[in-house]
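seq:
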Amino acid sequence: MFMKIDGGLGAAFPTSLEGGFQPIIDSAKQLEAKGYSGAWTAETSHDPFFPHMIAAEHTEKIELGTSIAVAFARNPMILANIGYDLQNYSKGRFILGLGTQIKPHITKRFSMEWSKPAARMREMVVAIRAIWDSWQDGSRLDFRGDFYTHTLMSPFFNPGPSNHESPKIFISAVGPLMSEVAGEVCDGIICHAFSTERYLKEVTIPAVQRGLDKSGRSLDSFEIVGPGFVVTGNDEQAIKNSSTAIRQQIAFYASTPAYRPVLDLHGWGDAQSELNRMSKEGAWQEMGTIIDDEMLETFAVVGEPEVIAPGVLERYGSVVDRMAFYSLGSNSDSSMWDQIASDLLAG
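struct:
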């Protein structure tokens, strides 16, 4: 099975514009020249869309996507505009990757509404597509849903038809309801890093298939973006630093009640309760000590650089269409990751 290998866009991931455009230009060109399939941004401390305008101008083939942009911080019309413009500017290479975030972030950080996330996400994607259709074929915009209503589109606000197909829409999912939504109305699913091989095979992919069945499609028309936790480094200290950082990141995700089903599947549900308690006390560094070696190796591919590609292929080769690495703390140079990517592509 051929696996696409993606990379993070910019000198740092998430991408800052503070240092000017050149780091983004250089990163985009390098990723494309080295054969990466996609360049992704994330919405954490910086906007995920702006860098793709720069990347699109300086590349020709590589796909450009958000992994992820926070959907519920925006509305379908705003996302339709952004996606349409980036698709046109990139000449058909943009992927609109969306995620829900969790309730406290939506209500307290973005001051937006939260309710029924799976149903809301499904409706948001359908609404975005309805808006694109109205621009593309000139049909009257008349979308009426439970969460969103879009019934006004005068010529002044209509960008008109595009020479490119509508952007692909991927959504991030952990639970079966959201995974089913991905299969029903999206072009792909971004599997959360806090997933395991077993969880993908027993929960995520069957849910995606149920959604695909509803829409009369097959997995052949759908892309699965795999979880990418990796612990590696060019020397023993780098691997140790990477292990510590990834344990802390796994612990951070594991403290979220919505992600408990992943732990429950492996019999580690009690760890979620403890990590949630520690997170409320602000014990972020100490939380990583709860993640033992068995848990680490279940969530992450662990080892020296030469074993990472075979490990990824053995674990995910039969279930994942594309992969981006999620590694922290090793401070290894890009050549190590390029070699791992090359090994994966060759495998």
